[in-house]
Amino acid sequence: MPIVTSTELFKKAYDGGYAIGAFNINNMEIVQGITDAAAELKSPVILQASQGARKYANSVYLVKLVEAASELHPELPIVLHLDHGADFETCKDCIDNGFTSVMIDYSGHPFAENIEVSRKVAEYAHAHGVVVEAELGTLAGQEDAVSVEADKAFYTHPEEVEEFVEKTGVDSLAIAIGTSHGAYKFKPGTKPQLRLDILDEVAKRLPGFPIVLHGSSSVPQEYVKIINENGGKLVDAIGVPEDQLREAARRAVCKINIDSDLRLGMTAGIRKHFVEHPDHFDPRQYLGDGRANVKAIVEHKIKDVLGSDNKI
Ligand code: G3H
Ligand code: 13P
Ligand code: ZN
């Protein structure tokens, strides 16, 4: 199957009460781990490359890796998505070079500028058969605490969403409801709680419209433990509870972004391998263990969090 857009996948996900996993890719082993899991479980999948990933690997390699995965899994619907495109030029470059979906992230700019740039990207993308995700609201970074007063500034304001979607023409919308990027999302001792009420208010205002959640890693403690038992030092790494993500997927959320969990899996596999086999120096041996963890994590997400298995 050629690499597809997310339009039909999101329609089915919205109606079916599940979400499509959007997993970040940086190298061949990550692409393989994700797509092998998705193919085995008959789950559509989004492979997304950040600007950092495009710089690290060179975007041409990433596009070709995804094309290879698509050729090897002809039955698997794969979307190739730009994650957090910072400007029109970055989005245009991806649209012109094999991506089927782009995110323009102008959420850190004033509302009017966010509308203006997102609209420009949507016009260009749609003229080239590509779909667009934009964002309203600002996700907290790694260190941000969630205190009731301070966090309000980060949440999406539901009263802005209709005007934004209408004026920009974007195809999906990322919102801020308490998730954040990285492995340190919540302070120890606090109760992680997504604002599903904001999600529902947005959904009421945009019936049938696909909503996206960034920062949705759950930071599985079994992998944190393996890392720390094998020379790592990740202290108080806490993610989003998986049952809350499952609940969001039953509602209007059609795309759930996961990167940090794959990083933890890859790192745990490699660290453990080095400790257990100090004589090994063949990258295929330790990268193979990292890849196996990526596959296992994606399988778990598809079955137990996203609910996207057996949907092809
Ligand atoms: O949302 C950010 C993703 O986790 C990608 O991170 O920019 O370090 O590749 P990156
Ligand atoms: P995590 O850091 O929670 O994996 O979020 C990834 C993400 O949102 C990529 O855009
Ligand atoms: Zn993100």
Question: How would you describe this structure to a colleague?
Answer:
By secondary structure, this protein is an alpha/beta fold. About 50% of the residues lie in helices and about 15% in strands. The chain has helices at about 5-15, 30-40, 50-55, 60-70, 90-95, 110-125, 150, 160-170, 195-205, 220-230, 240-250, 260-275, 285-305, and strands at about 20-25, 45-50, 80-85, 100-105, 130-135, 170-175, 210-215, 255-260. An eight-stranded parallel β-barrel has the order 1-2-3-4-5-6-7-8, surrounded by ten helices. Helix 2 packs parallel to helix 4, helix 5 packs parallel to helix 6 (about 110-125) and helix 10 packs parallel to helix 12 (about 260-275). The termini are close together.
Number of strands: 8
Content-based structural category? alpha/beta
In percent, how helical is the residue content?
Answer: 40-55%
Shape: globular
Major pleated sheet: 8 strands, parallel, barrel
Strand content: 5-15%
Instruction: Please work out how many helical segments DSSP would assign.
Output: 13
Gist of the model:
The chain is an alpha/beta fold and 312 residues long.
What topology emerges from the helices and strands here?
Layout: H1 7-16, E1 20-24, H2 28-40, E2 45-50, H3 51-57, H4 59-72, E3 78-85, H5 88-95, E4 101-104, H6 111-127, E5 131-136, H7 148-151, H8 161-168, E6 172-175, H9 196-205, E7 211-213, H10 221-229, H11 242-250, E8 253-258, H12 260-276, H13 283-306
Parallel strand pairs: 1-2, 1-8, 2-3, 3-4, 4-5, 5-6, 6-7, 7-8
Bound molecules: glyceraldehyde-3-phosphate, 1,3-dihydroxyacetonephosphate and zinc ion.
Zinc ion binds at residues 84, 181, 214-215, 257.
